[in-house]
Every structure is written in structure tokens, then in C-alpha cells.
Design goal:
Layout: E1 3-8, H1 13-16, H2 21-28, H3 39-49, E2 51-57, E3 59-61, E4 64-67, H4 69-78, E5 83-87, H5 94-104, E6 110-114, H6 117-120, H7 130-139, E7 143-146, H8 161-171, E8 177-180, H9 187-196, E9 200-203, H10 214-221, E10 228-229, H11 239-243, H12 253-267
Helix pairs in contact: 5-7
């Protein structure tokens, strides 16, 4: 089975010009708009690493859309067998957000919803998210978000799992959550959430595998083995860079298969060919 990358985006010019992206570009050695990816360059990067499918994200924040759902749909259409989409919405327009999730949730190109709390400076238990959660449950779409510290110069507090995400999952026990970027430095909270909520999952986006904290690798081999998914945060990190030291994790064949594709295929209801 091919590898599934659950967190990527094909950035637009206006996203590349966002001031908060400059920090990430410095960390990863990107040159800003000169390195802006295309569907073609993204597929080429996937091929170099044996990645069969990438879930691309739309981005909406207080400044509006940085990658709109319409732009995301056009990106998917460039390589429909290689891409699926995670739609996004404007939290400030809850009725419109619900309508968008209901409409696009019926489109097979879209397999989830992503909102990034630090971009809004609102933790996920804020009332503006709640119509989105209800719509996700109704549409059968996972909710994808970010946990842990932030690379951009934004507050990390919104990425704490407890109490913010815990309160959400208590209020919406049917909601399937995929939390990206590990949750460091709150790895004890990650374990607690895994034990407590069967619908809670995490992905390794924004980390090359050799940089995973040892406690997280232990988690992958233990109670997290059916909860962890591979992600890159492309184009900030390439699939090849992230996968360089996969063998060094010491995963069993079953753990590796679950991490690289099986968990994502099950949770996002992706085809077996993915």
C-alpha cells in the first residue's frame, strides 16, 4: 500500500505573504513565494518518497481565505487520484460555515474539515467552533486541527489539549478528531486524551521522523499505534525529508503499515488503492 500524507497544502501567493509564515520559512530554508508549490511539483515530491496520496488543506483565518475551498477543489482536480481535500470555513459566519460543510461534505473530493486555532487566536472550545463540530458529526467528516506549540510567532496556548480539546470531545463524543503536530510539549496530555477518547487521533506533521521526541515514539509503539498518522506539513517539509529515518523508529511491520497508511485510510474512509 502507498503512503498517505494527512497534512499538506499548496500555498497561494497571499498565504506566502502572511507575516507569520516568515518564521516557518526561516526554519525550513524556504524562499517564500519563489518556492510556492504547484500540484505538479507536489506530486513529484510525493513520488520521490513513495507517497500515494496527500490530503491538502484549505486555510481560512481572520483575514479571510488564504487557500479557499474553491482553490483547493481546483488543486485536487489537477491530480484527482493523488489528492483529497480538507475544507475550511470562516468561524465568524457560523451559518455559512454549516452550509459549506453540508454541501462540500457530499463531494467525494473532500474528506474532512481543518481549522487551526492559533490562526484565530481562539481555543477549540470557543463557542464559534461549536456549529462546525455539529456539522462535522452530521456530515460524517473528521475534524482536523493543530495541537502543541506553534512555529509561527503566535500563542501556543490555543494548542493545549486539556482543557480545550478535552471539553470539545466531552461535548461531542461522536466527533472524530485528528490533531496535528504531535502536541509537544504536552505529551502527557496526549496520552490522557488517547486513553479517554476512542475518536481521538494525532499526526506527525511538521516533524521529520528522526526529530520525534522519544516519548512520542514510545507512544506510537504502545497505546497510540492505531491512532497515529503520517503527515508532513508540505511544503514546509517534504515527504522525503520526513521519511528519511523511518527505519530508526523501530516500528514493527504492522505498526509501520498503520502509521503510514492504515490508520488514515480507516479514519478518512479512503479507498484501498490509497
Amino acid at each position: 500500500m502507498g503512503i498517505i500524507d494527512v497534512w499538506g497544502q499548496i500555498t497561494t501567493e497571499r498565504m506566502e505573504q502572511a507575516p507569520w509564515l516568515a518564521t516557518l520559512n526561516r526554519w525550513t530554508g524556504r524562499g517564500g513565494s519563489d518556492d510556492r508549490p504547484t500540484p505538479g511539483s507536489t506530486v513529484a515530491a510525493m513520488d520521490r518518497a513513495g507517497v500515494n496520496m496527500m490530503l491538502l488543506s484549505a486555510w481560512y483565518g481572520p483575514e479571510g481565505s488564504l487557500v479557499s475551498n474553491e482553490e483547493l477543489a481546483a488543486q485536487i482536480d489537477e491530480a484527482p487520484r493523488r489528492f483529497r481535500g480538507l475544507l475550511s470555513v470562516d468561524l465568524r459566519a457560523p451559518s455559512e460555515a454549516v452550509r459549506t460543510i453540508r454541501t462540500l461534505g457530499a463531494d467525494p473530493r473532500f474528506v474532512g474539515v481543518r481549522l487551526v486555532p492559533w490562526l484565530w487566536d481562539l481555543p477549540p472550545n470557543h463557542r464559534l467552533y461549536y456549529p462546525v463540530f455539529a456539522a462535522c458529526v452530521e456530515a460524517g467528516l473528521p475534524f482536523c486541527t493543530q495541537i502543541g506549540h506553534t512555529g509561527p510567532l503566535k500563542r501556543s496556548e490555543t494548542g493545549r489539549l486539556i482543557p480545550y480539546l478535552e471539553e470539545v470531545m466531552l461535548d461531542f463524543p461522536e466527533l472524530v478528531v485528528i490533531a496535528g503536530h504531535l502536541g509537544f510539549p504536552w505529551l502527557d496530555e496526549l496520552i490522557t486524551m488517547t486513553v479517554k477518547f476512542r475518536n481521538f487521533h494525532v499526526d506527525t506533521s511538521a516533524y521529520a521522523l528522526h526529530r520525534l521526541p522519544p516519548a512520542f515514539v514510545d507512544y506510537m509503539k504502545g497505546i497510540g499505534q492505531d491512532r497515529v498518522m503520517f503527515g508532513t506539513n508540505w511544503p514546509m517539509l517534504s515527504p522525503a525529508r520526513c521519511l528519511e529515518h523511518l527505519d530508526g523508529l523501530g516500528l514493527t511491520a504492522a505498526q509501520s503499515d498503520a502509521f503510514l497508511s492504515g490508520n488514515a485510510r480507516r479514519v478518512f474512509n479512503l479507498p484501498e488503492a490509497a
